[in-house]
Task: inverse folding
């Protein structure tokens, strides 16, 4: 069951209506899909719409490769609506139907075009690199006891390569054992910040040496963003799907 209702133009605030009209006047020519949700924060909606319009129609990539990247992304996130909207566009743009179906099934597609194989490989490698990001997310979810956030991301963490035993230890509030040094480091960064609201000199130095300043900022950004998301879900008591057991005690 949808967790939202459409906001009609008549109900929109002046800021929402301005963004609505900008989207309708743009390349999309219509207002709907994710923008019905994002319009609740009109400034974010406006920037997201402009970015999306550029990424779909303003880059140097042909539609064929753009749509291939989009459906590969939709498959990774199991984004039902995104796939529904873009799989036909991918085929229309020239991505072989057999490749589209293989991606849908989570299989490795066969491409005759080298650029298609390359774009698919780039997307796939990037999603596999989500291991440390998902580890930071589930560590954040555990601290806030964010039931839905954990429900959504614990499977993604395992899929990205975080050991199942480590995921379960984090869920129980225990110290996980890692064989990968970068995983142990990211977990320590998160844990230190949650326990002390600071990062020790030793951890900071190791983080910069291992992840770089960019990587450290990205971990901090992930913690901050998913703190916001987790607390939003907690405050509004967003329930898990029927039949799912909450991972944490309330």
Result:
């Amino acid at each position: 069951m949808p967790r939202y209702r459409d906001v009609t133009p008549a109900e929109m605030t002046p800021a929402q209506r301005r963004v609505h009209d900008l989207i309708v006047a743009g390349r999309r020519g219509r207002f709907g899909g994710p923008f019905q949700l994002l319009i609740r924060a009109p400034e974010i909606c406006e920037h997201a719409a402009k970015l999306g319009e550029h990424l779909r129609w303003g880059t140097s990539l042909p539609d064929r490769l753009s749509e291939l990247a989009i459906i590969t992304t939709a498959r990774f996130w199991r984004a039902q609506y995104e796939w529904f909207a873009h799989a036909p566009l991918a085929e229309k743009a020239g991505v072989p139907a057999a490749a589209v179906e293989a991606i849908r099934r989570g299989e490795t597609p066969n491409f005759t075009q080298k650029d298609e194989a390359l774009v698919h490989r780039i997307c796939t490698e990037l999603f596999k690199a989500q291991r440390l990001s998902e580890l930071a997310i589930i560590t954040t979810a555990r601290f806030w006891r964010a039931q839905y956030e954990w429900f959504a991301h614990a499977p993604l963490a395992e899929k990205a390569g975080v050991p199942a035993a480590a995921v379960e230890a984090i869920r129980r509030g225990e110290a996980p054992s890692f064989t990968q040094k970068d995983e142990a480091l990211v977990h320590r960064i998160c844990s230190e910040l949650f326990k002390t609201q600071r990062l020790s000199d030793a951890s900071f130095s190791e983080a910069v040496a291992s992840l770089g300043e960019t990587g450290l900022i990205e971990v901090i950004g992930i913690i901050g963003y998913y703190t916001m998301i987790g607390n939003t879900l907690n405050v509004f008591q967003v329930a898990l799907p029927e039949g799912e057991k909450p991972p944490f005690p309330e």
Q: What stands out?
A: The first helix runs from residue 14 to 25. The mean pLDDT is 92. The CA atoms of residues 217 and 231 lie 21 Å apart. The two ends are 24 Å apart (CA to CA).
